[in-house]
Amino acid sequence: MPGWRGAEAMLEIGGLHKSFGGVHALAGVDLRVDEGEIVSVIGPNGAGKTSFFNVVTGLYPPDGGDIMFEGRSIVGLESSEITEAGIARTFQNVRLFLNMTVLENVMVAQHCRTRAGAFRAVLRTPFLRREEAEIETRAKETLAFFGTRLVGYRFDQPALSLSYANRRRLEIARAMATRPKLLLLDEPVAGMNPRETAELTGLIRKLREERGFTVVVIEHDMRVVRDVSDRVIVLDHGVKIAEGSYDDVSSNEAVIEAYLGGS
Question: Fewer beta carbons under 10 A from the terminal one: N or C of the chain?
Fold first, then answer.
């Protein structure tokens, strides 16, 4: 695994705050993700992990602090602009177009990268037809990353017909299709059985090794965290309480107390 210290920072966050009423979801979080890393963000329920993703991707504006992506502040940008900048995410609860086919779901995800405007769409110009063909080809190439799970006859199946595990895979495929540099995966193995979990753990590593993505994972399954992470960041009540290798973090007394309520 590539070392993170001294590498080029892709995401730098300083003093990030977000409150909902009187609840501090994020209370001065500082963190850095370097290019080529796989970083896991862990913590007990209510620690602020999903709020962190929601603020980074523009779903919620921060109350304070800055978010720098490739040296540029993305605070104040719309979610679509952040996607165009190169950050894509999945959600804790799978969000797909269930009545669209598997292939259509991935084609639609590429909308942020299309160049044909409304005029060309109305006239069905040759440029539009070429671009649609390119989008379909890229969608099939993206789905092929998942082996036999989402290819062949499944291209034309509605997402509604997929198993839960394949819906999870399809959501990752949709994120990949936006051609991001940074992938944020929110509990990607939630609800999966041990065999499915092991398969997706391998896929997370392949996202970096074969596709070159930098990856941040929110995960509760500590076996997944152990097997994929270059570095682990621990949040508790919106505060970063530990950071380091899996071995360092898993033996940290403050982390043990946050999870178990005592040593």
Answer: C
Please determine, for residue 16, whether its predicted confidence score (pLDDT) is greater than 80.
yes
Judge whether 102 and 157 are in contact, CB under 8 Å: yes
The H-or-E segment that residue 131 falls in is: helix 126-144
pTM comes to 0.89
| Angle, CA of 168, 192 and 248, to the nearest 5° | 100
Strands 23-34 and 38-42: unpaired
What Rg do the C-alpha atoms of the chain give, in angstroms? 19
Lowest-confidence pick of 11-15, 20-24, 75-79, 179-183: 20-24
Strands, E, within 131-213: which ranges? Answer: 182-186
pLDDT in tens, 74-90: 999 999 999 999 999 99
Q: Which of 42, 90, 46 is nearest to 226 (CA)?
A: 42
**Torsion sign (Cα): 222, 178, 4, 238:** negative
Token output for 143: 């789905």
Beta-carbon neighbour count of residue 212 at 10 Å? 10
Return the ∠ at Cα 178 (arms to 174 and 179), rounded to 5°. 120
Return the minimum-mean-pLDDT range out of 31-40, 57-66, 92-101, 240-249: 92-101
pLDDT of residue 127: 65
Q: For the chain, which residues make up each domain, given as ranges?
A: 1-86+180-237+255-263, 101-179
Please give the Cα distance from 100 to 91 (Å, whole number).
18
Topology (CATH) of 1-86+180-237+255-263: Rossmann fold (3.40.50)
Specify whether the CB–CB gap between 4 and 38 falls below 8 A: no
